[in-house]
Structure formats: structure tokens, C-alpha cells
Amino acid sequence: MVAAGHIVGDRYRLDRRLGGGAMGVVWQGHDLRLQRTVAVKQLLLNQASSPRQAYEARERALREGRLAARLSHPQAVAVYDTVLDGDAPWLIMEYLPSVSLATVILTHGPLPSAEAARMAALVSDALVAAHTAGIVHRDVKPGNVLRTEDGNVKITDFGIARALDDVVVTATGQLAGTPAYLAPELIKRQPVSPAADVYSLGCTLFAAIEGHSPFAHAKTEMEVVQAVADGRALPSTRAGELTSLLTAMLRNDPAERPTMPEVRAALGAKPAEYSIAPPPRAAAPPPEPRAAPAPSAGGSAVPVLPVEQPRARPAGVAVVEAPTERARGAGAVVLAVLCAALCGIVVVELFFV
Questions:
Q1: Which of 56, 148, 229, 293 could potentially form a cystine with 152 if both were Cys, beta carbons 3.0 to 4.6 Å apart?
Q2: What is the pLDDT of residue 283?
Q3: Residue 305, exposed/middle/buried by CB under 10 A (0-12, 13-18, 19+)?
Q4: What is the per-residue pLDDT for 277?
Q5: What are phi and psi of 192, to 5 degrees?
């Protein structure tokens, strides 16, 4: 158990615990190298039954964190770094003073449909960018939608659900995650696509408008899981013009749901500029050493003479290059011609004397 003051990865100091849940513990921290405030999240891995499974879980968490760090979008909480401290993987993220949509609903009740649509529109734009980068969030819910004091909205915890493989029922039979916002295919352990985020965003929008999840009629978590799997969502009574969109987003069959770009367009979101960093290039392998020459027939090795390197030319000193063989030959020819010409002149002068 770590405490305030602990230094993660010899760089990030934990200052104040902000909260925690089934997937991790979040701290307000300080980057000692860049001198800035960060959010530091310790990921809580499921109990593995073997060292091999524990190793794979840690590697998966770090890999998903690095993937999420490639995305830079104004409506997504940025991931700065991934750190393995001890046996625990940690994510270093942007620190955003804010409250979650879950807290807003709990404190103030349902939102006006226009405000709920505005928040969902901003989140949908971030999810379109994430899907372009190959990231499926898998855990879109009110607790992961953050609203700042000035009304800005960001979604957090990209890739964490996939990193922890923390979907519904663990090997010990314990329920994990938030099943009321999970797509049916996640609960059924079927292949997951961006359509899962469409479903979860629909549940989040429903909760913002109605004040509760579409499965509030279920009394226990396992009843919620069964209701989600069966597609027994409550109808919306306050959505108004958003009713048809909500109904389409909450369809049980992923192929029948609208795409995230279609959801964004329906909510009237204006696409924001974003960037996706390329994956890091693997380091070039060091050059292989040259093999030593084979020994001669007599058994002695052929000596390898070092190649003489050209001497450095001193600054300000002109260097006259030695003439080549061809230049020396041309000079000899010119000299011979001149000598012949002089001899001719001497003979002519003697003849006329």
C-alpha cells in the first residue's frame, strides 16, 4: 500500500489521493522532472493464478497505456507516461480539476436535454478520434466523463478496461466494472468493436437525461448483467427529439447501431482538430562484427592490417596534394617537347653563323 510522498518511477511524487474504484486508485501528483501537476493512477490488476498471467497482465496494461498516449484530442484526458513501479503498472495523465458527470447527476439530478446532448457530442468527437487510432474505450460511463468549472468536457480512462481485461465477471466469480453501461457483446465475451462505445455512450446520454441508467429496474448487479444481455432497457421519457437516436444507440445487435461519426453528426458536434502520434520505431540493431579471416593452409592466421585513416587537415593550412601517376606522365611529355624545341633553335642559329 503506497502513501502520500511515495515517488513513482523515481519521477512522480504522490501528493493527495483523489479517489479509487475497482480498476485503480487515482492520486494528484507532481512531475519532479517537468515541475507540473499530474494525475497518477495505479492500475489494480485482477489476481492472477500464475506468474505468467501476472506478467502478461502488467505488459498488457503498459501496452494499452502507450497506445492511449498516442491520442491527443481536446476532449480526451491526455496520457503522458506509463510506469512500472514495483509490480504495479501506473498511468501518468493530465490533471484536470473537474467533477464527473456521475457526481453532477447525483448532486443535481437529470440535466436539460440540450446540455446532455452537448456533453455527449463532445465525447463522441473524442471517441471518433480514438477509434481512428485503433482504441476502443470499452468503459464509457458517467464516471469517466469529466466537466470543468467553465463547462468543458473530457473523457478519461482510455484503454484501461482493455488493459486490465476487467469486464464483468472475473475468474473468481466476482463482478467488476460497471455493467449498467457495458455493451451486451462485452458481457457475452463476444468480439468488441467501436460499436460497443456507441452503446455505452447511449447509456451515458440516457442517464444524463433521465437521472439513472437504462437498467435501473434491475435490483442486483447480476440482474443488471442479465437485463443488458437480453436487451431489456427502460424507455426514455424525457429525451424528446433525442428519443430515436437513443433507441438506435441502445440496440442489442452492434451491426444495427449507428456509427460514432453518425452519432456525432446527429448530436451536432463540430469535429475538433486532433493528432495521433505514430507508434514508436524499434531501435536499429547494432552492426554485426566482421568475421575474422580464415587461417591459411599452414595454420597461421592471415594478419589483418589496419586501414590508415586520413589525417585531419589543420585549420588555415593549405595542403598540396601529391601528383598522380597520370599527372607525372603528362609533365614528362611537356618537358620533352620543350627540350626538342630548344635544340631546334640552337641548330638553326649555328647554320646561319
A1: 148
A2: 46
A3: exposed
A4: 81
A5: -110, 140
> What distance in Å separates the CA atoms of residue 248 and residue 233, rounded to the nearest whole number?
12
Q: Is 41 marked as binding a ligand?
A: yes
- Domains of the chain with CATH codes: 7-271 (1.10.510.10)
Return the ∠ at Cα 26 (arms to 24 and 30), rounded to 5°.
140
Cell output for 254: 452492434
d(CA 281, CA 16): 36
* Cell, residue 309: 585513416
Residue type, 92: I
> Do residues 276 and 70 make contact, with C-beta atoms less than 8 angstroms apart?
yes
Query: Which three cell numbers mark 268?
Result: 451536432
Concerning whether 139 is annotated as a catalytic residue, the answer is yes
Q: Which three cell numbers stand for residue 112?
A: 436539460
The helix (H) or strand (E) run that includes residue 7 is strand 7-8
What letters, b where the CB count within 10 A reaches 16 and e where it falls short, cover 173-187? eeebbbbbbbbbbbb
CA angle 327/328/331 to nearest 5° reads: 90
SS3 192: coil
C-alpha 183/C-alpha 345 separation (Å) is 110
Which one of the listed residues 81, 139, 166, 197 is annotated catalytic?
139
The count of residues in the chain is 353
Extract the residue ranges of the chain whose pLDDT is less than 50: 164-176, 283, 286, 296-307, 313-322, 327, 333-334, 337-339, 342-343, 345-353
